[in-house]
Amino acid sequence: MGALTDDQGEMKGIGKYSQYTLADERISFPVAGISREHASTVPLAAAAVWPFLASRKPVSGYMRSSKDENAVDKIMGVAPTLQYVFDTIGNETSSSTASHALTEAGCLCTASKEDHELSAELFEKLPSWLESRLLNPSHLKLFKGLDSVPQGFQEHQDGKISAYKVVYEV
């Protein structure tokens, strides 16, 4: 596989397709007071909301079900000139659905170098938030071993995963 170019999100010296990846220690956090399994549920959820919590601008949001066949019409009904979408669902149809609700000039938001710096700020705060219980890890369902991956995928395809994160112990 070829390397990612700068416009595809590569952070020079941090990572790309290779035999190993170097991780910026600023976007990791020490785990204390919770299990590694529970700690693994924190970064994605926290990083998904952090840009909005850290923003000084007001954010108007509408929660829509990813399973609603009329989601696009409903979104366009409340936001007919929608220009930006931050897809926090991330399933096989959510980005496509979201893009259909956008105006022609609209775009799906993607990670950037600014997001990387914002994430570094978040990960600096996470340990104290977890310790003080200001932030709690997600509920989880633990699957053991790589052989359990198909079972987890099947639960996802069957729509059974709700209110918890799937974690694989390898």
Residue fraction in strands: 5-15%
What about the largest sheet?
2 strands, parallel
Backbone shape:
globular
What do the pLDDT scores average to?
Answer: 76
Low-confidence stretches: 1-6
Instruction: Count all strands and give the number.
Output: 4
Strands across the major sheet, in which order? 1-2
Total number of helices: 6
Distance between the termini: 25 Å
> Structural class of the secondary structure composition?
mainly alpha
* Share of residues in helices: 25-40%
Query: Rg from C-alpha positions?
Result: 18 Å
Order of helices and strands: HHHEHEHEHE
Task: Describe this protein with a few key phrases.
single chain, 170 residues, mainly alpha, two-stranded parallel sheet, two-stranded parallel ribbon, 4 strands, 35% helix, globular, disordered N terminus, Trans-enoyl_RdTase-like, oxidoreductase, oxidoreductase activity, acting on NAD(P)H
What does this molecule look like?
This protein is mainly alpha-helical. It is built from 6 helices and 4 strands. Strands 1-2 form a two-stranded parallel sheet. The protein has a two-stranded parallel ribbon with strand order 3-4. The protein starts with 35 loop residues before the first helix and ends with a strand.
